[in-house]
Amino acid sequence: MSTTRRTFLKAGMAGMAGGLTAPAIARAGQMKELRMVTSWPKNLPGPGVSAERLAKDIETLSSGTLKVKVYAAGELVGALAVFDAVENGTADMAHTASLFWGGKMPAAALFTAGPYGLTPLEHRAWLEQGGGQQLWDELYGQFGIKPLMCGNTGPSMGGWFRKPIKSLDDLKGLKMRMPGLGGEILRRLGGTPVSLPPGEILTALQSGAIDATEFLGPFSDMAMGFYKVAKVYHYPAFHEPNGAGELLIARKVWDALNNEQRRAIEVACSAEAARTLAEHTWRNAEALKVLKEKHGVRVMAYPADVLAAARKIADEVLADLAAKDALSGKIVTSWLAARDHLAPWNDVALRAFLNARLG
After folding, report:
1. pLDDT digits (tens, 9 = 90+) for 139-155
2. Using CA atoms, how far apart are residues 56 and 77, in angstroms rounded to an integer?
């Protein structure tokens, strides 16, 4: 081979190598490592697994420019300290649920669920089509945080009890783990709501610190082991007909990302919301069967008087919430308007069909 030809080939190969490695070098320069804290025990079926899956999807969709390290509850901060951790910079992101933040923002719970409120699909429609996301951004923006829905565990169950609830009188003095607006309804019904992080619920139930608890649906509840202590599983979850999870992102972190990275996070969150809803719908059906047939759990409807009283009090709780401050009023008004807007369609599209399917 001539010297001239050899020189030409070397130059060509060098040029090709430079062209191939330039994007990788650019990506390496843009790569950010983000700390995600969560409110869940490590690898808890449902939300704990979802957080890990979301982190991997963000890395994949961002072409490796974002790497997310996940910390389970207690590994970096406590389960109920994740909002503060994102606000003060201890963490960059958090995987959690808005119903934990009522003390900071009275209307926050509605972005997970509200009593006698929106179903999972209705909730997503409100966020994406009915102005809910803009209100959520405004609410959390006061704390320098960008929120996104990043999961949905679907409708919850009413709760776990040692003895059946046969009437309103059985709620008097009952100590029950129930955060959010459902806890306020329980209080007005004569019970005592207790707010506990998920990882502490079973121990409190075993020790008698609480008499009853609610959490999610059969899939995650069975993994938590509540059936070992309480054998009565009431339904429906009038307090939580939806189970939206949230990703909190420090606003300064969000603003520093490029458009592609922000879009990667949005797409990953949207996909995880759809995936978890499908997963929980399927797994809840499986787990409910196991709980009844293998573990002897009694699955029982709440008495009619309990549901009627809770419905009346829910209206009062929402009215009081709307009166707390101007932004809470805007959120409650928007949320109720979404419920009213969607109800007529769901009556003819879903309720009528399900009734017809039952014969």
Report:
1. 999 999 999 999 999 99
2. 21
